[in-house]
Amino acid sequence: MRARRADEHRRVYYVDRFSALALGLIVAMLAASLADAILTTHLLGIGCYEINPLMGLLLKRGVTWFFVGKYLLTAVGLPLLLILKNHYLFGTRFRVGYVIPAVLACYLILVTYQLSLIAGL
Question: Global pTM?
Answer without folding.
Answer: 0.81
